[in-house]
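ZP: hey, is the iron/sulfur cluster complex queued? I don't see it on the tracker
AM: it wasn't, my bad. submitting now with these inputs:
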Amino acid sequence: MINMMIGFFKDFFKYKQSAKKQQEWLEKYAKQKNYALNPSWMMLTNLKSNLCEMEATFGKRYCPCFEPSADEKLNKKMMCPCKFIDDEIAEYGTCHCALFGPADLSKEDWKASSKRLMAEYQVPKNLKEGVLDTRGMPLDPRRALPIPDMMHQVKSTLNGYKGETLTVIVEYEQEVKNLEKIAKYRGLKLNSVDKDGSFEVVLDFRK
Ligand code: SF4
């Protein structure tokens, strides 16, 4: 929990300026659609930081909850605000990430949807002796992408991580490409090996 809070505030200060630009379009879009933004300052701040990070890492404003896939058509649909927003509001009360919801959504319903989202990311990680196996997570029914995805698993592992290297096992080549972009953005060295149907990527934190 403490590491999560440290990560939250690090991102808050890092993206403080660019988050203001996110706020502008978020408000404009919400007004057009008669939606509201998540009323929780922490949730909204975290989502805005994640949107900034997606843009900085991958060059596009992808959904803060899903790293890009190998399917370009799906990636286009995942640009925020995504193509799934209305369907998900109908199902969950808010969009998947609990960023947008109807203007008249009650506080309790916002809380319930935020809780649903947090639960998706609080599954135990498969981390042992510096090796994080990111495979086998449940799939989101609309996008057929894992929740939590590799990127979120790595990010939460790195909060407070003390090792000199982290070996990340991923299933898809696209995840290796994504890790390369993440490592480049964070200034980390990376080495990847193809291992019979999966990939082992070593992130090296030594300077
Ligand atoms: S689920 Fe919400 S936050 Fe994610 S892309 Fe869609 S609208 Fe944006």
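AM: back. The mean pLDDT is 94.
ZP: great, adding it to the tracker
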